[in-house]
Amino acid sequence: QEQLEESGGGVVQSGKSLRLSCDASGFTSTSFTIHWVRQAPGRGLEWVALQSSDGLSDHFAESVKGRFSVSRDGSKNTFYLQMNGLRGEDTAVYFCAREMLEITPIAWGYYLDSWGRGTLVTVSS
Amino acid sequence: SAVTQDPAVSVALGQTVTITCQGESLRGYYASWYQQKPGQAPLLVFHGRNSRPSGIPGRFSGSTSGNTASLTITGARAEDEADYYCFSRDFTGSPVTFGGGTKLTVL
To answer: What 3-state class would DSSP assign to A29?
Structure first.
């Protein structure tokens, strides 16, 4: 059974860095695009970043562009979200999720079929 | 968000409710739908043209028309009370996006 588990969250001072990990099991990490999604306290889901299955392409939300980066270690089946220059507004639960793609003659559909439980990042001033 | 949802919807127990998601990207890309209960990770409940993941009750269904995707719960149960999010392609900057979420209350 496919599973994802995040770790690395905690309390960090504003301006500092933190690296989150997402451990994958039950599937080969290099075969899938992985997304990072966050949820600030009492707020909705916010898409943060993705890294393509081949590791050659990544994209970021405007709110984190230039501060966050993604990487993966295929040998460990682990994905990483490196967060630099953290701000108070980055306080959130961070989830990683696996992307699937459905292609039909009419339309395409992206969906996230497996999610971790999330890890809380709190940025203090 | 490039896709928008009504913030809140309510339904009487056992009745049918439809949650909608609007956005231009939905004319060419299917939405996927996620249920989230407090303190839990989102759970995929519907995706694509007509796909429901294993374990998701048959009362959950979806559809798309024009720039609107819909998630319908037929015969809502108390345990369906949750936040629901749509997710799809985004043409306004980021490659993908979530809707703002709809809080479903089962009365």
So the answer is: helix
> Which one, of B51, B43, B54, lies nearest residue B85 by Cα?
B43
| Residue in A with minimal Cα distance to B89 | A110
Query: Do the Cβ atoms of B104 and B81 come closer than 8 Å?
Result: yes
Of A7, A20, A33, whose CA–CA distance to A114 is shortest?
A: A33
* Beta-carbon count within 10 A of B77 CB: 12
Nearest CA in chain A to B31: A109
3-state secondary structure of B78: helix
Q: Is the pLDDT of residue B106 over 80?
A: yes
Given a cut of 50, the residues of chain A with pLDDT beneath it are none
Chain A: closest CA distance from residue B59 (Å): 19
CB contact under 8 A, A109 and B85: no
pLDDT at B71: 98
CA-CA distances (angstroms) from residue B91 to A107, B51, B97, B101? 15, 24, 9, 19
Q: In what order do the strands lie in the sheet with A18-25?
A: A3-7, A18-25, A78-83, A68-73
The Cα-based distances of B93 to A46, A61, B2 in angstroms read: 14, 8, 9
pLDDT of residue B1: 65
Q: Which of A3, A29, A10, A30 is nearest to A83 (CA)?
A: A10
pLDDT at A28 (0 to 100): 84
